[in-house]
Design brief:
By secondary structure, this protein is of the alpha+beta class. The chain has one domain: Roll (Sulfate adenylyltransferase). The protein contains 4 helices and 6 strands. The chain has a 6-stranded mixed β-sheet. A hairpin with a 2-residue loop joins β1 and β2.
């Protein structure tokens, strides 16, 4: 199992396929989205380790075609109810605070059949858009 690889790097597939993924990728490429959250339980289910600060990942579209690269700047696993307002805003989707973020994320995860409570562990991944000029 595990995440697809491109050029030996792990991929980042944001949201669900279709319009949502296209919108989220656009926010990353515009420099507005600098964070994403995932259920910690999904990592074990998918046979993957948490992202690591400094890791470069390939941002992909629905067809696993590269649309850009990101560098992970930080990862923190926290209970759902302890995601910060600052992190919620870093997702670039217009969330003013945790309450708005929580409503949208609970709806998204529960539509996928996941149960989310206040103590559900969430992986909060911060990143920045990466470019080849970062090499030198």
């Amino acid at each position: 199992m595990g995440w697809p690889r491109v050029d030996g790097l792990r991929t980042m597939e944001l949201g669900s396929k279709g319009a949502m993924r296209a919108e989220l990728n656009g926010l990353v490429l515009a420099g507005l989205k600098r964070g994403t959250a995932g259920l910690y339980s999904d990592y074990a289910a998918e046979g993957e380790e948490l992202e690591q600060a400094g890791e470069v990942m390939v941002l992909v579209d629905d067809d696993l075609t590269e649309v850009g690269r990101i560098e992970v700047t930080g990862v923190q696993v926290v209970p759902f109810e302890q995601v910060t307002d600052e992190f919620a805003r870093s997702e670039g989707e217009g969330f003013a605070d945790w309450e708005e973020w929580a409503l949208a994320h609970r709806r998204f995860w529960e539509s996928a059949g996941e149960t989310v409570s206040g103590d559900t562990p969430v992986a909060c991944v911060s990143f920045r858009l990466w470019s080849a000029s970062d090499l030198g």
